[in-house]
Design a protein that fits this description.
This protein is an alpha+beta fold and 429 residues long. Helices cover 31% and strands 33% of the residues.
Length: 429
Amino acid sequence: MSLRTIVEKKIDKPEVFKNQLLDWSQQFREMVFLDSNNYHQKQSSFDCVLAVDAFTSIKTDFHNAFEDLKQYQQQTKDWLFGYLSYDVKNDVEDLHSNNFDGLHFPDLFFFQPKKLFLLKGNQLEVRYLQLCDDEIESDLIDIENNCQLSIINCQLSIQQRISKESYIAKVNQMLEHIYRGDIYEANFCMEFYAENAIIEPVKIYQKLNAISKPPFAIFFKNNEQYLLCASPERYLRKEGTKVISQPIKGTAKRFSDLVLDENSKTELETNPKERSENIMIVDLVRNDLSHTAIKGSVEVEELCGIYTFEQVHQMISTVVSNVSTTTSPVEILRTTFPMGSMTGAPKISAMKIIEELEETKRGLYSGAVGYFSPENDFDFNVVIRSILYNAQEKYVSFSVGSAITSQSNPEQEYEECLLKAKAMFEVLG
């Protein structure tokens, strides 16, 4: 177990401090910044976390990815931060990803940070590995004196990988699979992208976060690769022996008019298509959790709850289980990944059909970013409502998707995708 020096400090202006932390962190090659935006949620350990500067790390393609991660996690027994890309699915099942990839991120990346900041309310806990704990004092001074970065005005020409006509044709093909009984539901995604793009990642992230204020916002950087994420969805959390999954299925528009907004919410709550979409995925998640659960411990804590975010209303369910203290945390991830809300049901069949019809390799989009704690707990989000950027290749990408079921209308699914893309278009100008 790596020993860390812990220093506690009271922060007068947590919101200001968060921005200073994010700006200060840009000097490091590897960093992850997690922000819950003070969103009211029952299961949360911190309001904001920053991990920087890899002491050790693991970077791999999907081959043997879960086994390698398990070994790494068991050896370090420390805080680890990183991601599983969607294509790590190929390690678990006989699946392939041969679609176009403009981003070229590794399939899996985790690092053990030298420096860690955990903020809850106005209480800051700093945890540095002992090899660099003499820098705590000077780092805190640097953070509080940190000034804003320069602003590059980006003019991007955003293109759509799949045209509207092609999208509708592909959804109709997916519906044929559903009518034939190959699948009940599948999440179908399309990419928007810009080439020769130079953006200021921190500024774009701050704009995206400000208009979305989601509970699972993340700014991630691994050298030249960036994720700017405004996700409302948790994939999986483990606290002690309890495992919590919170799939989102069902989306409705927000309105500035209160009556219209309330109506939109009510309509979502009672919409049979949205409810059946959600319930199908809840069944899938229950099945996934049962692989590692203590017998009889899988429960649905909340079914089809309606939650309101800045941009949209969402339907969220909460499924929980209990695991034995000897169960490896990585095993819980392996048996539930990728998350049902981004695949469909039955899962393997849905993933095969998705791969045939989509034109972009998903990569980190619809994967998961999060952390392991030294106590074998973890918390991971679902990478949606996110912008991915490879600064070296000057390639910007964001994808959106919706769940296709037998009740889907291709035209309406297309509109739902555009609704989800709205925030990303807005911040990328």
